[in-house]
Amino acid sequence: MSGNNSERRARLANDIRRQVSSEATKRLLRTLPVFRLDKEVPKRLKDLLDRLDGAEAEKVGGERRR
Description:
The protein is mostly helical. It contains three helices and no strands. The chain has helices at 2-20, 23-31, 43-60. The protein is elongated and about 60 Å long. The protein starts with a helix and ends in a 6-residue tail after the last helix.
């Protein structure tokens, strides 16, 4: 019984891996907004990263990222 279950799980994992790596899935994901790459970092995020860099620089006495 457990052998049969592990075989099904292995087949399912292989099917998922095959589908995720298919060109059709990649094309679909590229069309979804959440998977698009922004060319610019939004100002709010940049401000937060700058604050984080400043806090890290104070803690370790290093230079800030540019």
